[in-house]
Amino acid sequence: MNDRYIANSRASKEALKSANLLKTININALITGESGVGKKKLARYIIDAPIVDSADLDELITQVSKNSRLIIKNFDKIKNYDKLKDALDRYKTRIIATSKKDLGESVEDKFFSLKIYLPPLRERKEDVKSLIEVFLKEAGEVFDDESLERLDSIDVDLSKNCYSLRKSVYKSYLFSKISEDEIMDLMESFLLDRLGSGNDYREFLHLFEVPLIRAGFKRFNSQLLMSKEFGLNRNTLRKKINEYKDKI
């Protein structure tokens, strides 16, 4: 994975500016934002240190005692802040912490001298293209396929930030390469453990019909043309569309 921190948007540039400052001064900092916005990536850019989850407080205290610098993720899940503060003061450990939500002024003022907020990717569109290039390179190494760098179309999903964006890249690659036989193998595997309802054919028919209708709308953009190309009566097609209106 590329170690460069992507910073094309204004918000990312401001975050990187703060991160570069933190490289030069020995203070504790908090990075907040939704899952997948790059909090851990930015923390690792600031300091080279072990990463520990705050879910296990005893393990966290142990790591504080063993390390002069530490990255603590999910800081908002800590159960006993006083116990952690005592350990940090005792061992003089510097921390860069991440959290999905604000901790409140009392906690933030107790532990941190600087706070960085990373907005979601939907507010940092300038970063998305560069991130796609990073994920394409990563996927190309995983699949040993240079053609990934020339992937023409990616259905970008930013709902879970970098997590869903990376998945978009991988999924687009697989969809571009998958064969008819592999699709049928996937369907067979999916259906195998789900059969036995007594109404299986009717129960799973939508797995074929819904994607077909969705593709028809995208390809033909007309129910009239779709019915002609599908070889279906317009009333039959309209009935199918109404039947699956919650899925289309």
Summarize the structure in short.
The protein has helices at residues 10-24, 39-46, 57-66, 81-91, 105-111, 125-143, 162-177, 180-192, 200-204, 206-220, 223-230, 234-243; strands at residues 29-32, 51-53, 69-73, 94-99, 114-117.
Description:
The protein has 248 residues and is an alpha/beta fold. It folds into 3 domains: 10-119, P-loop containing nucleotide triphosphate hydrolases (Rossmann fold), CATH 3.40.50; 123-177; 180-243. 55% of the residues lie in helices and 9% in strands. Strands 2-3-4-1-5 form a 5-stranded parallel sheet, with helices on both faces. Helix 1 (10-24) runs parallel beside helix 2 and helix 10 crosses helix 11. 21% of the residues are buried.
Helix count, DSSP H or I runs of 4 or more residues:
12
The total number of structural domains is 3
Q: Share of helix among residues?
A: 55-70%
Strand order of the main beta sheet, please? 2-3-4-1-5
Reconstruct the topology from this structure:
Elements: H1 10-24, E1 29-32, H2 39-46, E2 51-53, H3 57-66, E3 69-73, H4 81-91, E4 94-99, H5 105-111, E5 114-117, H6 125-143, H7 162-177, H8 180-192, H9 200-204, H10 206-220, H11 223-230, H12 234-243
Parallel strand pairs: 1-4, 1-5, 2-3, 3-4
Helix pairs in contact: 1-2, 3-4, 6-7, 10-11
